[in-house]
Amino acid sequence: MEAGLALYGWEVKSLRHRKTNIVGSYVFIRKNEAFISGMVISPLNQACSHITKNPNRIRKLLLKRIELDSLFGSINKKSMTLIALSVYWVRSWIKIKIGVAKGKKRHDKRLDFKEKDWAREKARIMKSKLR
C-alpha cells in the first residue's frame, strides 16, 4: 500500500539528497491514525539552524479511512506487522510503500544463526589456509 508522509521542510530537503534510512522501521496505528517509527532522516548541514532537528521522530502517515481499516484488519492476524518497504517521489509528493509482514518464530531464527556461524567458520578456515 502507498501512503504519504507528513514532513517538515528540512526533512524534504534531506530526502532530495537521499539522506534517509528505513531499515528497522515499522508502522503502528494509534487512535485511528498511522505513524512510522524508526525511520531516520539525517539533517543537512545547510538546513536552517533555528529549528531543533530530530532525525528519529515519529512521523504521521497520510492514509484514507478505508486504507486504515484494511491495514488494521490485516495486522490483527497473529504475529503480523506493518513495515516500510521503500520511500520514493511521485511528482512533488513523497510516498512510502507499506507492506504487511509476518514475524519469524524462534525455530525459524535457528537456521539463520546456523548460516551465520557457518559463514564465520568458513572465513576462519579460508584465512588460516591463506597464511
What's a concise summary of this model?
The protein has 131 residues and is α+β, with helices and mostly antiparallel strands. The protein has helices at residues 9-16, 65-75, 106-130; strands spanning 2-5, 20-21, 26-30, 33-37, 40-41, 59-62, 80-90, 93-102.
Task: Please explain how this structure is put together.
With 131 residues, this protein is α+β, with helices and mostly antiparallel strands. The protein has one domain (2-103): Small Protein B, Chain: A. Helix content is 34%, strand content 33%. It contains 3 helices and 8 strands. The chain has helices spanning 9-16, 65-75, 106-130, and strands spanning 2-5, 20-21, 26-30, 33-37, 40-41, 59-62, 80-90, 93-102. Strands 1-6-4-3-7-8 form a 6-stranded antiparallel barrel. A two-stranded antiparallel ribbon has the order 2-5. The longest helix is centred in the last third of the chain and has 25 residues, at 106-130. The model has no long low-confidence stretch (mean pLDDT 85). One of its GO terms (cellular component) is cytosol.
CATH T-level fold name: Small Protein B, Chain: A
CATH superfamily: Small protein B
The mean pLDDT is 85
Please give the share of residues in helix.
25-40%
With strands numbered from the N-terminus, the spatial order across the biggest sheet is: 1-6-4-3-7-8
Distance between the termini: 52 Å
Low-confidence stretches: none
